[in-house]
Amino acid sequence: MSFSLLPEFFAFLGVDIFVALSLLTCLLDDHFPKTLPWLFQAGAIGGYVHIFISKEFFTIFGDYMRFWYCLLYLVVALANVIALNAYIAVIKKHWTLAKVFSGTVVFPTLLISGFFISNYAGQVAEFYVSGMALLFSAVVLGVSISVLLSPRIVKKYWKRR
Amino acid sequence: MKRVFSKSIKMLILTLMSIVVLSATAAMYYSLSMSSTIDVYAAEVYFVVGSDNGTKGLVVTFGSQNTTAMVSGLRAYPNATFTYTDPVRVRNNGSITAQLRLTPDIDPSTNPEDFVYVRFLLNASAAADRRWLNYTSNDSNRHRCKRRVAHCNND
Known about the structure:
Largest sheet of chain A: none
Strand order of the largest sheet of chain B: 1-4
Helix content of chain A: over 70%
Order of helices and strands of chain B: HEEEEEEEEEE
Oligomer: heterodimer
Structural class of chain A: mainly alpha
């Protein structure tokens, strides 16, 4: 039996991300505004409504439209993940926490999303991203995030300039 | 202590909400990914021509997959009974007994006032399965009679 991804999978992935962010911000509520977990929970419910509308108008919406609005939802979810990391790093100036957050949340989330998007692109448009390219991107992404969020390296860089 | 308690409650509520939202979303996604399989195959019960075809002006033509048959060119003398003994046959090619629904549709396009009735006889091989159906006129050019159900084992 062949398994193929539907465009709504991206919305489902976005819901997962929102739910994870909601629980995470609740756990780390000392660092984030108190209303944030509820906002993320509302975002997850929004994702459910998203898929519900997609199902109800399944025959009207084409594959192309379904893909783009589901991808948009996933991009919004990913933007929230990055914004949280930036909030910890820039506003709160908790460099260590930001580094841990980027390594355990932002980086895996981006990698998983990238994997599924490339998978879908290969399935629909036969646009295959090779495993090596993905691995290379993962290494570059991981190194750049850790370098950017390492205060010593950043300070050294600014001193040189 | 109170803060820890409130945080636990908040976490519990959020966890329960997350479970509900994720389950509902997964169910919705699953319903979208479901697919059905439709098989199309040839009809096992169908019409075939009888020995009267081509004789006495009778012409039998079949529709798609031989599930409909048109018998044209029927002729009869006034005040006389004219019988086509074997115009069209029904064949059951399946392995089990089939139930037939015969829906005659008669169009006496010329001289409709002379039309009295047409009797449909189902000459099944088993005497118990034989059925007949009289189609009578009601002074209309086009008539449609109610179905009659019969069983068919073979021709």
